[in-house]
Amino acid sequence: xxxxxxxxxxxxxxxxxxxxxxxxxxxxxxxxxxxxxxxxxxxxxxxxxxxxxxxxxxxxxxxxxxxxxxxxxxxxxxxxxxxxxxxxxx
Length: 90
Hints:
Layout: H1 3-13, H2 23-30, E1 35-40, E2 52-53, E3 57-63, E4 70-72, E5 78-85
Parallel strand pairs: 1-5
Antiparallel strand pairs: 2-3, 3-4, 3-5
């Protein structure tokens, strides 16, 4: 994962696209081999800072190098991104 890649994803998720049904599938098709998952931002542990934020979403790095995938604060070695949808009510 590079800052340029994160910027590309942020642009793809802008203008409400993060909430579009199937956006994670579309991103997986556009970027084969990269894991994408959509969840509610409230489901992410508050101690973990996002690697980037947008208008209504936050991106978190996913490490896929171990036996189980896990969220990580490190872009280096990350194999995917969790897209945390931010609710206005939060």
